Amino acid sequence: MKEILFAIIQGLPLTVLLTGVSFALGIGVALILILAQRTRIAPIGWIARILIDLLRGIPILVWLFLLYFGVKIGTFVFDPLPAALVVLGVTSGAHLAETGRVALEAVPPHQWESARALGLSRSDTFWRVLAPQAARIALPSVTTFALVLLKDTSIPSVIGVMDISFHTTQVARTTGSPLNAYLAAVVCYLIASIPLALVSRTLAPARQESEQ
Prior knowledge:
The protein is mostly helical and 212 residues long. The protein has a single domain (1-203), classed as MetI-like fold (Orthogonal Bundle), CATH 1.10.3720. It has nine helices and two strands; from the N terminus they run H-H-H-H-E-E-H-H-H-H-H. A two-stranded antiparallel ribbon has the order 1-2. Helix 1 runs antiparallel to helix 8. The longest helix has 34 residues, at 178-211.
């Protein structure tokens, strides 16, 4: 069992890397989509909302296959890891954009009106008044989503990304002991997920206070 655990835990660093980089990319994509939805240029807002619905509505595996097997520009093709990062990052951005939209709507409307009455520009009102409050409201949900993203990192193993799930499948096949292999995978995922779960649980009271 120790040998099996050691073999599978080799995929833990890549799983953590996938989660962290995809999450960071997702934050950037989410910010772009949130700003696009709030623009005064209606077509841009419509496009952003359509993109969010498409990215949230179609399974990650489908997007992954489309990018990895379907996108070829001349001799260029996506390697497994970059394809996984792009798909997980962009789809995460769509989910986080929706979380951000809900958080912004939870900020009392009078905050906007008061800031505008004080002479703040539309941009300053958003960045100095609305965004900080929305971030506090969204933070617990965002950390919970990070847990979901950690689990989703198992999907790219089907195209050869050597994360925990990839190593688990290989070990299960070579040792003929799938039960031990998947029990070891449980241990590895717990090592990665427990810190995120603790952070999410700690931030839950802060969200309740923000909503009161």
